[in-house]
Design a protein that fits this description.
With 241 residues, the chain is α+β, with helices and mostly antiparallel strands. It contains seven helices and nine strands. It has one domain (9-237): B-lactam Antibiotic, Isopenicillin N Synthase, Chain (Jelly Rolls). Pfam families: 2OG-FeII_Oxy (PF03171), DIOX_N (PF14226).
């Protein structure tokens, strides 16, 4: 695949966010930012978020180091993590996507849930990764709520009509690893799919591999710059016309 996608790039400045979210009368910069987010979601279904200082580079780096130590654990340890909810358990060694393994960690925004997970993986405990996992999950959830609010506000929907929907939303953190394919492996990380949730926020380890399909039906690679997050619209926010 030789095509490279050109998707919108948006920056969330601290001043614009502060003036918009904390004011009963948001300024024009906030309104323009909300419109830009909505337009990106409508035109491409995704955008690159640059320089979002609420999720610092140091936190992302610490999270990625912790994830590596998680996937380095023995297989019999990783398979202990089971959950009856779809996509919430450890997944690996699947013949359809042999390069992929992942954990879907439920409620990691609650410190107790993050602690339960890390104690299951490390019986002696791993307080450092527990704290990072909880903080990263919480920051990601806050960001997803803000993006949802921006989309609703861009349609001039009153806050009282959507605040309960946003407040009662649930989330889970998925951590994934793709091994380097050998000459005998198919070069496929995941099968083509759409996310069923409202918003997906992707933080990756400078390894390019994300592909999207355009409205014209072409598959294109998304080149993600260092320190950028990818925001992807899920099926829950899509409207068929």
């Amino acid at each position: 695949m030789d095509r490279t996608a050109t998707i919108p790039v948006i920056e969330f400045s601290g001043e614009d966010i502060k003036n918009g979210r904390s004011s009963s009368s948001p300024d024009q910069r906030w309104k323009a930012l909300c419109s830009k987010v909505r337009e990106a979601c409508e035109s491409h279904g995704c955008f690159l978020l640059m320089r979002y200082d609420k999720i610092p580079t140091s936190l992302c780096e610490d999270m990625l180091v912790g994830i590596k130590s998680l996937f380095d654990l023995p297989e019999e340890t990783k398979t202990k993590y089971q959950n009856p909810k779809p996509y919430r358990s450890y997944q690996g060694k699947c013949p359809v996507v042999p390069l992929h393994e992942s954990f879907g960690i439920d409620d990691a925004t609650r410190l107790e849930a993050a602690r339960d997970f890390t104690h299951l993986m490390w019986p002696q405990g791993n307080p450092a990764f527990c704290e990072i996992l909880n903080m990263m999950s919480s920051k990601m959830l806050e960001l997803s709520f803000m993006i949802l609010e921006m989309i609703f506000e861009s349609f001039d929907i009153e806050e009282k009509k959507y605040e309960a929907l946003v407040r009662d939303s649930v989330s889970f953190l998925r951590v994934m690893k793709y091994k380097v394919p050998t000459s005998e492996d198919q070069n496929l990380g995941l099968v083509a799919h759409t996310d069923k949730n409202a918003i997906t926020i992707l933080c990756q380890n400078e390894v390019q591999g994300l592909e999207i399909v355009t409205k014209e039906g072409h598959w294109e690679q998304v080149v993600v710059p260092k320190d950028a997050l990818v925001v992807i619209v899920g099926d829950a926010l899509k409207v068929s016309i």
